[in-house]
């Protein structure tokens, strides 16, 4: 059984899915802008909500830091930029793939 964990690297705008210490997938992301930066630290996925509506695309995965999550987007041109209110934004097809792989309580490390 995989031992998944997620690393969000803000400096290179990538989300890495690791199994143990091996990167198994890499996804481009959007992160928080200057005034609403993405929080740094260690968190975990606490819930998943398909089709949350609004700007969150096809999937919301809430983090253990309230009001922050990993989610899809209705604006794919934003990926690869610092434009969010602090969440980690992914292409819809990527967030679906990730949500199908990782269980609730998957550790998420967000680093500068």
TrEMBL record:
<dbReference type="GO" id="GO:0016757">
    <property type="term" value="F:glycosyltransferase activity"/>
</dbReference>
<keyword id="KW-0378">Hydrolase</keyword>
<dbReference type="InterPro" id="IPR038063">
    <property type="entry name" value="Transpep_catalytic_dom"/>
</dbReference>
<keyword id="KW-0961">Cell wall biogenesis/degradation</keyword>
<protein>
    <submittedName>
        <fullName>L,D-transpeptidase</fullName>
    </submittedName>
</protein>
<keyword id="KW-0808">Transferase</keyword>
<dbReference type="InterPro" id="IPR005490">
    <property type="entry name" value="LD_TPept_cat_dom"/>
</dbReference>
<feature type="active site" description="Proton donor/acceptor">
    <location>
        <position position="71"/>
    </location>
</feature>
<dbReference type="Pfam" id="PF03734">
    <property type="entry name" value="YkuD"/>
</dbReference>
<dbReference type="InterPro" id="IPR050979">
    <property type="entry name" value="LD-transpeptidase"/>
</dbReference>
<feature type="domain" description="L,D-TPase catalytic">
    <location>
        <begin position="4"/>
        <end position="111"/>
    </location>
</feature>
<feature type="active site" description="Nucleophile">
    <location>
        <position position="87"/>
    </location>
</feature>
<dbReference type="GO" id="GO:0005576">
    <property type="term" value="C:extracellular region"/>
</dbReference>
<dbReference type="GO" id="GO:0008360">
    <property type="term" value="P:regulation of cell shape"/>
</dbReference>
<keyword id="KW-0328">Glycosyltransferase</keyword>
<dbReference type="GO" id="GO:0071972">
    <property type="term" value="F:peptidoglycan L,D-transpeptidase activity"/>
</dbReference>
<keyword id="KW-0573">Peptidoglycan synthesis</keyword>
<comment type="pathway">
    <text>Cell wall biogenesis; peptidoglycan biosynthesis.</text>
</comment>
<dbReference type="GO" id="GO:0018104">
    <property type="term" value="P:peptidoglycan-protein cross-linking"/>
</dbReference>
<comment type="similarity">
    <text>Belongs to the YkuD family.</text>
</comment>
<keyword id="KW-0133">Cell shape</keyword>
<dbReference type="GO" id="GO:0071555">
    <property type="term" value="P:cell wall organization"/>
</dbReference>
């Amino acid at each position: 059984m995989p031992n998944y964990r997620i690393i969000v690297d803000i400096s290179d705008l990538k989300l890495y899915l690791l199994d143990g210490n091996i990167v198994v997938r890499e996804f481009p992301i959007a992160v928080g802008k200057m005034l609403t930066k993405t929080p740094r630290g260690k968190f975990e996925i606490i819930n998943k909500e398909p089709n949350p509506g609004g700007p969150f695309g096809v999937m919301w995965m809430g983090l253990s830091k309230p009001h922050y999550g990993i989610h899809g987007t209705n604006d794919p041109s934003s990926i690869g930029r610092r434009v969010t209110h602090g969440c980690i934004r992914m292409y819809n097809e990527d967030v679906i793939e990730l949500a199908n792989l990782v269980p609730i309580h998957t550790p998420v490390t967000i680093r500068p």
